[in-house]
Amino acid sequence: DLVDWQKPLLWQVGYLGEKYDEWVHQPVDRPIRLFHSDFLESLSKTAWYVVFIVWAPVVLYLSWVSYTSLAQGNTRLFSSFTTEYSIPVHKYYFPFIFLLGMFLWSLLEYLIHRFVFHMKPPASNYYLITLHFLLHGQHHKSPFDSSRLVFPPVPASLVIGFFYGVLRLLLPEVLGLSVFVGGLCGYVVYDMMHYYLHYGSPKKGTYLYGLKAYHVKHHFEHQKSGFGISTRFWDHPFRTLIPEETFEKED
Q1: In which domain, by residue range, is 73 found?
Q2: Quick check: helix, strand or coil at residue 36?
Q3: Distance from chain centroid for Cα 51
Q4: How many domains does the chain have?
Q5: Dihedral angle of Cα 126, 120, 145, 156, to the nearest 10 degrees
Q6: In which element (H, E) is residue 88 found?
Q7: Residue 134 burial by Cβ neighbours in a 10 Å radius (0-12, 13-18, 19+)
Q8: 87 in a domain, yes or no?
Q9: Is residue 107 classed as helix, strand or coil in its secondary structure?
Q10: Is residue 88 in some structural domain?
Q11: CA of 76: how far to CAs of 89, 105, 173, 237, 249, in Å?
């Protein structure tokens, strides 16, 4: 009764105020329309395989560019500070730099999920509530909407471009690209895994089965913890791990 389900929800949720946080964590099994515009609505949805089709070739191409660029032997770490003590970055380091990018993505995945997607917007701020619902609230409200389980390529490209620009500023060009492509691969794995955790049927006792159970608990029992999706690793040091439940056997 708090919203009109026949109209786009994005412009309504900001008026829920102090009721928003409780409302958004009461899931429903129905599709959500966000925008009046059919064009904008289409940009907010995507099939899971589109993410792989769009970004996997980019990962392969940029990996080749990074490796062949490092093979030229012109990349050196700390060369902007000193030429005498700069460290050459050989092409054989690329797999390790790539894995470093994936590792950094896993941390970024956790931080974004916890501090951006699960921020608690002030009840008096219409715009922050609306932004929260757009970014992640709509997923918790309708966790079975298969069209919104992965990040659509158009808005994703803006975020990905931002992080590429940051790495270009912080690291030598080829080194930054190598870290970036590893992070991009981590993102693709994360998005594919997130879809699978909602709709896949992993075998009991496997790693993915444990992650699926963990993610289900995050949605329906522990919305303020369990922020790791592709891994629970970062929930340990940040103390947001969902506790294991134990059940005593009846005599």
Answers
A1: 9-207
A2: coil
A3: 12
A4: 1
A5: 80
A6: strand 87-88
A7: middle
A8: yes
A9: helix
A10: yes
A11: 5, 23, 10, 33, 61
235 in a structural domain: no
Write the single-letter amino acid at 56: A
Rounded distance between C-alpha atoms, residue 106 and residue 111, angstroms = 9
Would you give per-residue pLDDT tens digits along the chain (251 residues)? 789 999 999 999 999 999 999 999 999 998 899 999 999 999 999 999 999 999 999 999 999 999 998 888 776 665 554 455 567 777 888 999 999 999 999 999 999 999 999 999 999 999 999 999 999 999 999 999 999 999 999 999 999 999 999 998 888 788 889 999 999 999 999 999 999 999 999 999 999 999 999 999 999 989 899 999 999 999 999 999 998 764 344 44
Distance separating alpha carbons of residues 111 and 142, to the nearest angstrom: 22
The two tokens of residue 236 are 């340990």
How many whole angstroms separate alpha carbon 141 and alpha carbon 250?
36
Main-chain dihedrals φ then ψ at residue 216, nearest 5 degrees: -65, -40
Closest CA to 230 of 175, 182, 192: 192
The amino acid present at 73, given as its one-letter code, is: G
